Structure formats: structure tokens, C-alpha cells
Amino acid sequence: MTADTLAAPRTPKARKSGPNLEKWGWIYMRASGVLLIVLIFGHLFVNLMLDDGIHGIDFAFVAGKFATPFWQWWDVLMLWLALIHGANGMRTIVNDYVHGARTRTVLVWALWLAAGFLILLGTLVVFTFDPCLGIENSTTDWLIEMCAAQ
Question: Which fold has domain 23-149?
Fold first, then answer.
């Protein structure tokens, strides 16, 4: 092929050796999307449809959920999948629309750092949640009794 001709439309480009990260990113987006649908609708059903619905959501409801390992892992899995899914989607948009290589690199690094920080912070909140912290300012009787019993 000479410099004046174009490659055929479906001619594959030569690819570097090693793992195909774009393919794995594409697969992750599909798999995490399906899992997120199940996790999010389960979360919404439990929070909005059971018992008192939206009127039952208060500090006690959240404290009760975070006292159970099942709901801790449910929320952490939802957090991790959603943040990685969103960061990967934003990475795709940056790669499509940002033309400068240096700017693209800075933005992608910023995306992954922000996602990593939020994942770390959210995971710490879920697993270290203690409803008895700050009890001295509470006016909720059940909380005062529960924390006094510990």
C-alpha cells in the first residue's frame, strides 16, 4: 500500500502484544451493568417498598442495615461496581473527545484517582460505621439505650 491510498475499511490495525484492555473494559461494562441493575433495584425495593417505605428511612434504618454484613457487602459491591463503571465510561468519553495526548493522560489519571479515593472513603464508611459515636448529642431514646447496653 502506498502513502496515497487508504486501507480497506475493515482492515485490522496491528495491535501491541499483551492483554487487550479495551476488550476487557467493554466486557466489564456489560457485566457490571447487569449486576448494577440487580443491586440497585434490590436496594430501591428494600428501602422504598418494604415496611413504611420512604417514611421509614431514618438514622435507625441505616444503622440497622449497616449492622448486618449482608447489607454492608451489598452496598460496598454496589459502590465499587458503580464507581468503576462510571469511571470507565468517563475514560471512554475522554478518549473519544480529548485530542491532546498529555491532556488525555492527565484527565484519565484524575478520573481513576477520584474513583479510587471515593471507593476507599465509601468502603471505610460502610465497614467502620458506628451509630454510637456522638451519642452525647442524641435525642433518640432507642439509640441511647442500645449504646448504653454495649
Answer: 3 helical TM bundles of succinate and fumarate reductases (1.20.1300)
